[in-house]
Every structure is written in C-alpha cells, then in structure tokens.
Predict the structure.
Amino acid sequence: MTETNCSTIQAAINACAISLIVFAGAVHASDAIAQKAQLDMQAKKITNAFATELKATLMTAVAKGGLSAGIEVCQEQAPEIAKKYSSHGWQISRTSLKTRNSQNTPNIDEIAILQDFAKRLASGEPAKTVYYSNLNPKSGEYQFMKAIPTGQLCLACHGENISNDLKAKIKAHYPKDTATGFKLGELRGAFKVYFQSSNAQ
C-alpha cells in the first residue's frame, strides 16, 4: 500500500470518528431537550396544583376569619401544602425579592431571575408565560421558577395601604417582614421547583 493510500485511509477514519463524536453529541443534546420538556411539564403541573390549593385555602380562611386568618394560613398552612407537593425528588417553595418569611430569601442566582421576571411583567408580558427553567445534563439538577404577580387579594397584606391592626398582626408573626409596598400586577415573587434527575450524564 502506498503512502498516499495510507494517508487517504487515515483521513477517512479521522473524518468518520469526528462524525461519530458529533452525532453522539447531537443525540445527547436531543435527549436533554426531550428530558427538559418533560420536566417542565411536570414542574408546571406541580406549581399549578400548589398555587390552586394555596389560594383556595387562603380565600376560605379570609372569608371565615378575615385577613388576620389569612396571615396564619401563609405562616402555618402554606409550608404544609408545599410539603404535600414535594415528593419523589421534587421540592416546591416560594421566594421573593421582598420576603415576609426570611426562610424564603432567594440566593444570588434566584435574585437575577426574579429581577428578570419583574422587568418582563413591567413590559406587559402575561404572567402565565413568565417562567424560567434549566436542566444541568451533567449533574442532573433541574430548576424551575414561575412568576407570582400581585393580585387584588395580595394588596390587603402586601400593598401600600395596610391597616394599622393588620400591620401589628404581621409584625407579630414576621418581625423581619419586608414584603409590603406592592402594586397591583407587580411581581410579588415566584414559585420555585427543584428536582434531582437520576439521568445525569
């Protein structure tokens, strides 16, 4: 076999190897996209279920016992409802740039996401489309956050005109409260969901 033929064969082998590497990378990327889409779907279901039950519980409490009862729901029942939907590796909670419960303080990455959410809501983007998700294919760690806009009911306890009696009640339950001064439609906070996938690369 001539030296030219050997070089040609080697070049073909190298090209084939590169093609296989590129193909394998494309397959992994495709798998990751499909997996993330499934996780997004599940995260949205969990978030919607949690939000629906929390809102219903809050409205029932307020209807029966007034806004003071609503504060107690947020402090006592909200964490229990979150636990109900945190299973099989999923963890759901809430966070905000201005927290009432200091345990919900966002980390530096979440702060950046929340700031982006605030800008998107302010620009007129519908709240239902304001979310963020990310899957790290190497670690298998998945993160999802969905914006919580300030609704009419929220304003009574989180708005700019809170009654003195209610302020005292909030202070008694949350000495480090900073979650006031919100306007209708502004970003109140976000639901956050974490999941550790077993399909890490």
